[in-house]
Amino acid sequence: MGGLPLGGPGPLLILLLALVIDATFGDWLDRLLPDPAQLAKRFCNAADARLNRTERSPTDRLLRGALVVGALVVIAGATGLLIAWIGGHGRGWLLELLAVLCGLRGRAAWTRIRAVRRALDSGGAVAGQAAIQPLTRRHAYGLDEHGVARAAVEATARAFARKLVAPVFAYALLGLPGLLVWTAVDGADAALGSPGVRHERFGLTAATLDDALNALPARLAALLLALGAPFIGAASLRGAVRTMARDARKHPSLNMGWPIGAMAGALGLSLGGPHRDGGVVITEAWIGDGRARATASDIGRALALFAVGGLLLAGLVALLMTGLASL
């Protein structure tokens, strides 16, 4: 955990403050504060264009990709250590709070997904396709209205795990260096971790490290979504637990099947499934055994579950802070 600032709040109180500020002003801060994951993504995209040449051998491309990710992790960790050191002196904790806010993007992700619901309500499938395109790796313009809604619900589960739970987990466990390393790996995976021939070797390190770092946070996110289900109308805790336990491993990702399974089971939906990429049908397993014909209202229910899960996460941080204070 991060060091205890002299004369300032401890790391868990900083984290709790950051969660409250992000939930309240996250949309506004998203436009002002740099996003470390996006910076890492740009770094990796530039390295990809320069170093990932098709004429090089698979081993050479693997080593070059590993060096890119390794350099990114070192830069992120060193930056986190420096800011944490500054945060341990006087009012330097305010800089650490700002750094934590840079890594938390829960409210911003929530708002982008809400925009998909509004687009579906106002403009149907065409407007929904444009709104969902940045939030899914699927071919957005091959999705009908129900496909857009399913993709948005899946994006909600992913965002809860990756933009809220994972950075909170990383900071609580390893302080600011852990948080910035996670956001760097998140950006590297977004740039290089997609399946395909180009990144099969060059992006292998990014994808593998992302899977390793997200293993526990993804499962914690699934648990929080399941526990939040009783607070959402017609959502099911039992369905969430049953579906994630049965179907999580069917998802192409080692980790994202857990929160997506919890979301599908809680809301009584079937997510994932076959989809078209141009003229090619991509076969993926269904997650859940509920309705596949998701609607804009299901996106609203998913966003409500996201919000309740965020409250439970904040409560968990407060409980941990209280428990440590009493020791």
Q: Main sheet: which strands, in order across?
A: 1-4
In angstroms, what is the radius of gyration?
A: 20 Å
Percentage of residues assigned to helices = over 70%
How much of the sequence lies in strands comes to under 5%
Membrane topology: Multi-pass membrane protein
GO molecular function: ABC-type vitamin B12 transporter activity; threonine-phosphate decarboxylase activity
Subcellular location: Cell membrane
Main location: membrane
Task: Give a written overview of the molecule.
The structure is a single chain. The protein has 327 residues and is mainly α. The protein has one domain (11-325). The protein contains eleven helices and four strands. The protein has helices spanning 11-32, 36-51, 58-87, 93-103, 106-132, 145-192, 199-202, 204-228, 237-247, 257-267, 296-325; strands at 271-272, 275-277, 280-282, 286-287. The strands form two sheets. The protein has a two-stranded antiparallel ribbon with strand order 1-4. Strands 2-3 form a two-stranded antiparallel sheet. α4 crosses α6. The longest helix has 48 residues, at 145-192. Pathway: Cofactor biosynthesis; adenosylcobalamin biosynthesis. One of its GO terms (molecular function) is ABC-type vitamin B12 transporter activity. One of its GO terms (biological process) is cobalamin biosynthetic process.
